[in-house]
Automatic annotation (TrEMBL):
It comes from Tolypothrix tenuis PCC 7101. InterPro entries: Acyl_CoA_acyltransferase, GNAT_dom, N-acetyltrans/Recomb-assoc. GO terms for molecular function: acyltransferase activity, transferring groups other than amino-acyl groups. It comes from the Bacteria. This is N-acetyltransferase domain-containing protein. Residues 1-154 form the N-acetyltransferase domain. PROSITE patterns: GNAT.
């Protein structure tokens, strides 16, 4: 499996991965109406291509199958971070996170932060993040619980 930066041709697979992961994996922690609001049926691949290209988006490429992806913004914010439903608990997320953290060090970022879902919170805790607060956020009329989390990077 190769961890690499996003390429335009990845957009459709990434959008589909996001949709399927939220609809199936996150369904364990959120209601059906919540996951449908979070990942609606009308996916716009063009939007995914624009957003992913504007950030440091790392992709786990398993011989043409995108097993996961994570996005780092230049201010240290980790936005989208998802692993394919068929690649859960296989170390894919850890590999993507390692690439993100390496890039943060390279850019001189000393604090990473994320709004983690209930599902993703244990992963980010394992990566050394601390929970700042539990939040309630609204998305397409649904209220979701997530967690503001952060990690301070110590100089290498």
């Amino acid at each position: 499996m190769e961890i690499r930066l996003f390429q335009q041709q990845d957009a459709e697979q990434i959008a589909q991965l996001f949709h399927e992961t939220v609809r199936e994996v996150n369904l364990g922690d959120y209601s059906e109406t919540q996951v449908k609001a979070w990942a609606p049926d009308n996916l716009n691949f063009r939007n995914w291509a624009i957003i992913c290209a504007a950030r440091f988006t790392y992709v786990a490429d398993d011989r043409g199958v995108i097993a996961g992806f994570g996005e780092l913004e230049t201010n240290g914010h980790i936005d989208c971070f998802y692993c394919h439903k068929n690649y859960q608990k296989m170390g894919v997320g850890s590999k993507i996170y390692a690439a993100i953290e390496d890039k943060a060090y390279e850019l001189g970022i000393n604090r990473l932060y994320v709004e983690a879902s209930i599902t993703a919170k244990p992963f980010f805790l394992r990566m050394g993040f601390s929970t700042i607060t539990e939040q309630q956020v609204e998305r397409r009329g649904e209220i979701f619980v997530n967690y503001a989390m952060e990690k301070f990077l110590i100089s290498r």
